Amino acid sequence: MQAIDDSVVLSIGEMQISQYIIDKNYDNFVKTGHGDTINASDKQAWFEAFLARLIVTAHARELGYEGREEVLDTVSKMERHMLTTLEGPFYKSLLQIDIPPSSIEKEKKDFHVSYYLIAARFESKAALHALLGVDFLDQNMSVQEARLSRLEGDAEHFFFEGQLCWPFEPYRNLASRLRTWDPEGGTSLIQSETINDISVALVRQRHVRQGSDPSSKQIENYIAHSKIRDTQLKRHRNLLSESSFRMHEAALSQLFIAIRDHPGEMSTVPFKAIKPFEDEPLFEFDMPTGHRSVCVGEYIRYFNEQFIRSLPRNEHALRRGVEGYVVSELDFIEAKSQKVDYEPQFIQNRINFTNAQILDVYEREHLFPKVIVEPAQVTAFYKKNRSRFTLVSKCQGRLLVFDKALSAEWAADMQTSTKEARAIAVEEITNYVVEIGKTIDAFNPLEPILLNAKEGDRIGPIPDHGRFLVFAKEENVESQVIPLKQVSDEISDELRRNEVERRSIQLGKSLVGKYNIIDNINYKEYGVNRPIFLRQKSE
Question: Long-range contacts of range 441-449, CB-CB < 8 Å, 24 or more positions apart?
Fold first, then answer.
């Protein structure tokens, strides 16, 4: 884990704040919609508000809010998520990533080459034999193609037919074989087997594309992510095997039908959908503390509490989600045993998150109930900010279609030029229109984002029945004013939150005399002055 500056630069009574926490919150402020437009007065106002509310947090800590059940529960869920996620410190600790310059150059060369092929990926040679036959590799090309084509639409085995280009997902293990493929020899079968899977492909053509190289940073990020993911896949398979994981197939099928037929709000599964069979065992596995059986209800409670979740589109996705639960349980135990949660950066992130939860609970209990927003205030805000409620109702752009999630992610990255993004799309629809109430299913939840994005933005990737879509917005076509009735609750909530924040800042300033404050923040480094209320405290 990278070194951080966890030296204490601010003490408010017993509460200590490190340089890392100051920088993390300041960076989030700059990134969240401010960017290059931020000025000195904005910075000054942010520091005053941030420090005043830290004093309120210290006050809430003194009142025992750090030990409140809702705070402890939320922090515990965050800690578990951070210790088991692929981007978290545990998986990064499993692999020291060294990316030589030669690897970057190799990826740049691969970027300019695409292949037309038919491919599939299997979890083992046994799985390949079961679906394609034990004699598959010995058959002639026409038989191999016919057998592979039978898998069309099979998401579990990643069947694919079309142009495959960098980063060659999900057939990354075929990349080295593709580099040495000889197009002069005509269509040929290539295969590659790793500890995680085996991939086979019938390659027909190779195309060389023009265009500028992706940046070295983009490639480095991709290689690092791939190495961590490969480590995760290997570990995933080993843990399932070593823990004697066993699925109860009938319960799995019954659960998927319930999820499919009764989807809940916010990508949750309503308990009424599983009530008739919530106590049935869904899977079992061995833990260091003993054998464990997990019922349907327990798994759904876990699923609904995840910070990031999406309803499974098929039984295969549900199975992977269940396996992910098992792996995360075992990962969490090992991460704790290795004391990853004692790493300085993790400790500081936990302190920062805990402070935010303490402040949130305190403000909801002591400030929110006192704030009343009158209808006249809502109307005045609506009239003053009329342009904000004049929304784009129709826009136009290009719809880029991709077969691979990583290709779509790369194309959606604004560091990638539109020309480069278009070059790797398997399909492009020009003059594509997005209009309120008339978008395709995949776009429905994102309709407001698509309509209100800036001209020139690219939004995606958006999953759509095995494909991945990226919308490159070009121009707004029509706009409409949203009636006050439709946004009155939204305005009222915003006015209430703003007033709560204002009162919280005032409360913090009024409490400043109650605490011994030691302030060693280097304000000049941020281009601001020490807040007046702190200067008055020290005088």
Answer: 442/469, 443/469, 443/471, 448/391
d(CA 135, CA 75): 54
Residue 511 corresponds to which tokens in the numbers above?
């409490």
CB contact at 8 A, 294 and 281:
yes
- Rounded CA-CA distance 432/210 in Å is 25
460-467 mean pLDDT: 76
Confidence bin at 291 (pLDDT 50/70/90): very high
Q: Which two tokens stand for residue 38?
A: 């931020």
* pTM confidence score: 0.70
Q: Alpha carbon 217 to chain centroid distance?
A: 20
In whole angstroms, give the CA distance from residue 160 to residue 168: 11
Number of H helices, E strands in the chain: 20, 14
d(CA 171, CA 181): 15
CB 6 within 8 A of CB 344: yes
Q: Which residues pair with 530 in a beta bridge?
A: none
pLDDT digits (tens, 9 = 90+) for 92-108: 888 766 777 777 887 77
Task: Compute the distance between CA of residue 411 and CA of residue 338 in angstroms, rounded to an integer.
Answer: 38
Q: Are 432 and 471 in contact (CB under 8 A)?
A: yes
Q: Calculate helix-pair angle for 141-149, 125-132, nearest 10 degrees.
A: 100
Q: 57-71, 203-217, 221-235, 404-418 — which one is most confidently predicted on average?
A: 57-71
* Highest mean pLDDT, choosing among 175-179, 233-237, 335-339, 389-393: 335-339
DSSP letter assigned to residue 454:
P
pLDDT in tens, 22-56: 999 999 998 875 556 788 899 999 999 999 999 99
- Taking the C-alpha atoms of residue 204 and residue 114, their distance in angstroms, rounded to an integer, is 11
Give CB contacts under 8 A, 24+ apart, made by 515-518. Answer: 515/12, 515/13, 515/55, 515/58, 516/11, 516/13, 517/10, 517/11, 517/12, 517/13, 517/55, 518/10, 518/11
Q: In sequence order, which residues have a C-beta less than 8 Å from that of residue 77 and are 6 or more positions away?
A: 305, 307
Residues 244-270: what's their mean pLDDT? 91
The span from the CA of 331 to the CA of 290, in Å, is 16
H/E/C letters for each residue in 56-110?
HHHHHHHCCHHHCHHHHHHHHHHHHHHHHCCCCHHHHHCCCCCCCHHHHHHHHHH
d(CA 106, CA 172): 14
